[in-house]
Amino acid sequence: MLLVEDNPHDAELTIRALKKKNLANEIVHLKDGAEALEYIFCTGRYKERDIRSKPKAILLDLKMPKVNGIEVLKAIKGDDRTKAIPVIVLTSSNEDPDVRTCYEMGVNSYIVKPVGFENFIKAVSDLGFYWLLLNHLP
Amino acid sequence: MKDLTETINIDFQQLLETEPVCYVILSPDFSIVGASNAMLEKAGTKKQLVTGKSLPEAFDFYKDVYSAASGGVSVLESIQQASVTGQVQEMPVLKLDIKNTSNHRCESYWKISHIPVTFAQKQLLCIIHKVEDVTELELARREAAHYFQLKSELEATDDMRIRKLKESEVRFMKLFDLCPAPVFLMKVADFQLVMVNDAFCNLLQAEKTLFSSKSLIELGFVELSDFEAFLGKLNHPGDEGQDIELSIKMASGEFRRYSVTFEITQFGDSLCYLVVMHDITNRIKAEEHLLSSNKFLDTVLDNLPGIVFVKNAADLQFVYLNKAGEDFFGVTLADLKGKNCFNFYTDEQAAKILEEEQNLFKDNCVTEFEEGPLRTLDGEKWLQTKKIPVFENNTPAFVVCISQDISEKKKQQDAILSLNKELEAFSYSVSHDLRAPLRAVTGYAQMLREDYSDILDAEGNRLLRTISENAEKMGKLIDNLLTFSRLGRKELSLRDTDMNELMQQVMREINRTTPHKAKITVANLQSVKSDPDLLARVMFNLIENAIKYSSKKANPLVEINSYTADGQVVFCIADNGAGFNMKYYDKLFGVFQRLHAVDEFDGSGVGLAIVQRIVSKHGGRVWAKSKLDEGATFCVALPAN
Fold first, then answer.
1. pTM > 0.80: yes or no
2. In this complex, which of B439, B444, B483 lies closest to A95 when CB atoms are compared?
3. Which of B535, B543, B538 is nearest to B513 (CA)?
4. pLDDT, tens digit, for every residue of B388-404?
5. CB-nearest partner of A93 from B442, B447, B479
6. Residue in chain A lying closest to B434 (CA)
7. Most CB within 10 Å of its CB: which of A101, B30, B145, B328?
8. pLDDT(B14) > 60
9. How far apart are CA A38 and CA A58, in angstroms?
10. pLDDT in tens, B249-295
């Protein structure tokens, strides 16, 4: 699973929430949108990576420096190699108008931070993404 | 605008009624609009029988003289002349056969003049067809001619002729004195007066004897220069029978102006002028007044800061534009005349404007709208325009348009709008950025509680809980603020709303989020047109408040009902809780305004501000009444569909 989050505290809280339910065994944490694009499309620092090994899901923060979440989402959903990867957007508010933009661009679900386990379950069930849970829940 | 025209119409009426004149008012197409009582009486007809007809249709004695000229211009030609030139037209005396009251035809002599009346000195409003009955005068004149003719034949005459002459002399003298107009007989050679009639004596308040063998100059009744001009005209060949003016000094010292007709005739040994005087002072005053009325109107219109333009109803061409309009559009009235909006707008826009203006007359209503951006010499401008249909005799006559330059206002509005947007963007991003550290506070506090609560003692745990609670509260506050600022720009999506259904949703939400022990009764509620998501928010906030403020009562009670009044549906939410002091009512709906301390009743101070914002967006009204400690009732009135 890929977590794209620039705020270290938010990242720590999210990883902790996932770890607690044994969901974070293979979590990759990237600190900004530019790095995320390099990782996903195997360029720059990650050019050695195999693009066919796709993340099972991407948790994507919207508000990031340099390349923001919406631009990353646009790149993922605009490329045939990556558009099937489920993307869950992390937002700080239910009222965020960006969430609507994200849905228009094909995002699969969203979670309001801080990421609690209940939130996460809901987002995952929105995806019909039970196998992720089934694989990892005790 | 309307008032001005009315004032002027009233002026016309007053002017025309100052003397018992016979007149007919003709529209620009020469049909009859109205007639004075004197005229109607003379013709033995009624107003409703003549209105809308042409002169010969309405008055049969005009049939022979209307379009056929009898020794000069015809009546029709004179009217046309007046309407084309805008000048007063006077016709030579006309002989007419008019039925009198006993239905006998009798010979009448009428002096007819046509006075054009214009709007803003440019557009013909009507023509006054004015009639002066000069029958008696004319008869006197003719009799005099007859008398002098007979007298000149005297030398070769027999008894019969002498008798006839005497009869004629008597008739003449009688008519001469009976004649209502002042008449005098003056020698051609030295201008000495030979004879004057009673009317002349009355006019100058003098005995007949005063006048014998004196001239008007010697008697001081005329100014020398004026009299010389008058004599010049008398002596000018070809002027005979035409109007000449003379000013006579009254006993009061005032000069009155007379139009004069004269004939040169032999009287006794001398050649004399027989002069008949018609008082035209009133007519001239009327004309001057009319001119000054028009001038007044023009002055007012040209000095208005607003733009005034007038279009003809028939072809919707421009007929008038005031000074402010000329300056604004950079065109002169002369340029504009005869053009319509196709000359200034695209065909599509112009067709639309034309249709709207035609509809003005169909609906007979005034419209007001903003138009722009218009390209002018000073850049893009906005106008607030009011268009008024003007009818005359129930037929469309003009479109009067009054415009105000609102470009400045518009600019300010745009500035405010963009400022508001900026402010919203700012508050939005502030709310977002506030959230990140807040998340860290709650998140790390939770981590502390989860991993170290057994190491902390009771007081340590209490402090930790307090941190969490306050951080959460701040989160809610930020949420509310976001909602409030978002409402500012949200467009309503209005639908028919089943309020009973909506209330069930709200109650489910209340029961899910707000633990309470209140007894809540909901009556059958009336449906309304609303944005249901927003109205649910209103009801939620009001019910949540009612529950909160009644929570300290032994038997908390919340009642919800609705009624209809004055085309509005009113929803009321009443509780039996703490209430509030009406003294602070004006703070009730303000943002961050609270009437209770936080430790008494919790709250952010945004809930009612949100309620008010939503309700006013719906074009509705929210109010409350309460007494401290006796509960409160909040009412929301929305327009009933």
1. no
2. B483
3. B543
4. 998 887 888 888 999 98
5. B479
6. A92
7. B328
8. no
9. 14
10. 888 888 888 888 787 877 777 888 888 888 777 777 777 776 677 77
Give helix A8-20 / helix B407-452 axis angle, nearest 10°.
50
Question: Could you tell me how many residues make up chain B?
Answer: 641
By CB neighbour count within 10 A (0-12 exposed, 13-18 middle, 19+ buried), where does B487 fall? middle
Residues 6+ apart with CB under 8 A from B594: B603, B605
Res B538: pLDDT:
94
Q: Do B436 and A114 touch (CB under 8 A)?
A: no
Ranges A81-90, B433-442, B571-580, B605-614, most confident: B571-580
User: Are the beta carbons of A16 and B432 separated by less than 8 Å?
Assistant: no
> Which residue in chain A has the smallest CA separation from B441?
A9
In the structure, what pLDDT confidence band is assigned to residue A119 with cuts at 50, 70 and 90? low
- CA of residue B309 relative to chain centroid, distance: 13
Would you say B59 and B68 are in contact if contact means Cβ atoms under 8 Å apart?
A: no
φ, ψ at B128 (rounded to 5°): -95, 120
Highest mean pLDDT (candidates A17-21, B86-90, B320-324): B320-324
Instruction: Give the Å distances, CA to CA, from B187 to B212, B246, B271.
Output: 11, 17, 6
Closest residue, chain B, to A62 (C-alpha) = B432
Q: Which residue of A has its CA nearest to B432?
A: A92
* Confidence band for B550, pLDDT divided at 50, 70 and 90: very high
Closest chain B C-alpha to A9 CA, distance in angstroms: 6
Among A residues 23-62, those touching chain B with beta carbons less than 8 Å apart: none
Query: A3-61, pLDDT tens digit by residue?
Result: 999 888 888 888 887 777 666 667 889 988 899 999 999 998 888 888 878 888 898 98
The answer on pLDDT for A126 being more than 70 is no
Question: C-alpha dihedral over B475, B479, B485, B486, to 10 degrees?
Answer: 150
DSSP state string for A42-87: T-GGGTTS-TTS--S-EEEES--SSS-HHHHHHHHHTSTTTTTS-E
Q: Is the dihedral of CA B346, B352, B356, B357 positive or negative?
A: positive
Measured between alpha carbons, how far is B581 from B409 in angstroms, rounded to an integer?
41
Contact between B65 and B79 (Cβ < 8 Å) = no
Which residues from chain B sit within 8 angstroms of residue A7, using beta carbons? 436
Distance from CA of B343 to the nearest CA of A (A): 46
Q: Which residues of B touch A (CB under 8 A)?
A: 431-432, 435-436, 439-440, 442-444, 447, 478-479, 482-483, 486
Nearest to A92 among B435, B442, B483 (CB): B435
Give the CA distances from residue A44 to residues A33, A40, B116, B481, in Å, rounded to whole numbers and listed in that order: 13, 11, 92, 42
Cα dihedral: B386, B392, B394, B397 (round 10): -50
Q: What is the mean pLDDT of chain B?
A: 82
Separate counts of helices (H) and strands (E) for chain A: 6, 5
The answer to whether residue A16 neighbours chain B at the CB level (below 8 Å) is: yes
Residues of A in contact with B440 (CB under 8 A): 9-10, 13
Task: Report pLDDT digits (tens) over B177-236.
Answer: 877 788 888 888 888 888 888 888 888 888 888 888 888 888 888 888 888 888 887 777
Q: Which of B535, B534, B561, B558 is nearest to B548 (CA)?
A: B558
The helix (run of H) or strand (run of E) holding residue B35 is strand B32-35
| Tokens describing residue B111 | 């002096």
Report the alpha-carbon distance of residue B32 to residue A75 in Å, rounded.
82
Q: Name the band, by pLDDT with cuts 50, 70 and 90, for residue B71.
A: low
* A22 in reach of chain B (CB within 8 A): no
